[in-house]
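Field reference: sequence -> structure
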Amino acid sequence: MSNHPFKTAFFWQPENISLVTGETIEKPAHQWSAKQVITLIRVTVGLIGIILALIPALEQSRLLNSGASTEGYYTDRWRLGDERSGERYYLTYRFFVGAKDYLNRVSVSAEEYQRAEIGAKVTVYYHANDPSQSTIYRSTIKSDSIHVATAVIIFAIIIFGSLLYASWRQRLLQREGQLVEGRVTHTKNDVQRSGDCYLTVTFTFTSPRTGREIIHTIKRKWDERRAEPLPETGQMVYVHYRHDHHYQLL
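Structure field:
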């Protein structure tokens, strides 16, 4: 094994050295890649943020559907920001439940802001057991909640579906792929202002199916290996190949 060509080959991921046995690739159990894990974390955090942003709209929708109602009136209106940063519009309204009065503020659209006049009457929906939780009637609130909820569901389906699809493709590659030798044709080491180091490698190999030359460029963060010498032009690489549109640099 000391004269085996993989000793001088460049490996995109060093752990793949153990997969190369000469002419075949052992079929390891599938593991999530670091990129997939990071994507999953980002998606999860994003979904949590969207859900947290959705809670007020859902609460308002619940009050509109099942809360008690009374008549109130606008006491103030104002806007913040500008056209550059984005204007935000607010209304303050007051209402009475029994002998106690309540004051609340709500964010509204520009159209609702323009229609509202101080002193004008408005229907207020409130929680029967806690009137401090209230909202004014807005015809768009239900549709807004539905649109946001639909967007969250579609977003989750797309992201998690893409992760499952990537995992499925990786399993196919492990089960049906073969080992193909290739060569490095170009490398570039890029250190960004943040200090992060990225390595770009262009490699080529001959397709076992069609016989055509396939050229591919790949880029990844290289901080942990930045002290290593860059791969040289002409240096051997190994490609895990299934077909001309499904392969992976080892």
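Note: Residues 141-176 form the longest helix (36 residues).
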